[in-house]
Amino acid sequence: MDSLLQALQPLPMTLLFTIPLLFLLGLVFRTRRRLPYPPGPKGLPIIGNMSLVDQLTHRGLAKLAKQFGGIFHLRIGYLHMVAVSSPDMARQVLQFQDNIFSNRPATIAISYLTYDRADMAFAHYGPFWRQMRKLCVMKLFSRKRAESWESVRDEVDSTVRDVAANTGKAVNIGELVFSLTRNIIYRAAFGSLSHDGQDEFIGILQEFSKLFGAFNIADFIPWLGWADPQGLNARLEKARRSLDGFIDHIIDDHINKKKNHGVVEGDTDMVDDLLAFYSEEAKVNESDDSIKLTRDNIKAIIMDVMFGGTETVASAIEWAMAELMKSPEDLKKCEDGRPLFDTLQCG
Ligand code: HEM
Known about the structure:
It comes from Castanea mollissima (Chinese chestnut). This is Ferulate 5-hydroxylase. GO terms for molecular function: heme binding; iron ion binding; monooxygenase activity; oxidoreductase activity, acting on paired donors, with incorporation or reduction of molecular oxygen. The chain is mostly helical. It has 2 domains: about 35-100, no CATH class; about 125-345, CATH 1.10.630.10. Helices cover about 65% and strands about 5% of the residues. The protein contains 17 helices and 4 strands. The chain has helices spanning about 1-10, 10-35, 60-70, 85-95, 100, 110-115, 125-140, 145-150, 150-165, 175-190, 200-215, 215-220, 230-260, 270-275, 295-325, 330-335, 340-345, and strands at about 70-75, 80-85, 285, 290. The chain has a two-stranded antiparallel sheet with strand order 1-2. A hairpin with a 2-residue loop joins strand 1 (about 70-75) and strand 2. It starts with a helix and ends with a helix. About 15% of the residues are buried. Bound molecules: protoporphyrin IX containing FE. Protoporphyrin IX containing FE binds near residues 120, 305, 308, 309 and 312.
């Protein structure tokens, strides 16, 4: 009994120190939490401003900015968001204090499907992102590289031939340019001349795209994650398994090709270029300018390119075509050989 009392003696001393410490920490956190957010629409408990979620388009946000000012605050579930619309505030965020704001937020789907931000688009701002960007500029998308992309010319030729064969008939430009950019990017990434496996890959991309855009309550109210009413968790796992099955096979083929035949200068695709930096473990060293990429990095970067380079470019081409259809004068200038970029006064 005595020994038990002795053992308990240090306890009051510990409590004497820990209770005020916890109290102080609580006070610090409460004071920090009380720092005011910018103005914004009043929210409901727990869900906050979730009822506004369908208005979070550029038009909806502009409307809210008229009411609450160039910087306003929304709370969607437990997630705090700040919308910036005035030039002064935008300059603060994008220029003067950009190092604080340069990380992108990632939803559960994005983190999972990018192998926990192993790609470039969602990597946090830091040494990996900087080295990865350098690698993109110097190797993957270098001028020399772009010139060697025969595939671009091939695919454009075949699209023009398709249109010519349908002279006098209606052509769905949206579908046509989407399949053009998809074919170009597919060949640039995987180097395959045939379109074997492309349908399977497009199916995987479409599911990724749906999952990236799906509303997941767990992104906003994390403790409701268990509910998963749309069955997103199972779909995420299935989608990533499908991508693994597809790209692992391609990566292995490239490794074997390199082992058997070496790398032929000027005949490499994006997988070859990325494999030149392959290692079991990711490593970045800014002092000697080196980077090592894992298989997950390689897969995630390929996904970035497939997503970043397909719909964006197709939409830009479709937009340019629509502008030209509305303006016969500009169309004439293009037909006379003036570059489209100058004609539409881009930039
Ligand atoms: C008209 C065509 C395109 C448009 C409008 C477009 C638009 C954008 C925008 C707005 C960003 C975000 C930039 C930022 O936050 O600073 C971005 C980033 C990115 N885009 Fe594009 N893009 C286009 C074409 C492409 C192409 C062809 C590729 C790949 C082949 C690509 C790959 C990427 C990647 C990897 C990122 C992330 C870059 C980073 O984290 O630094 N994009 N793009």
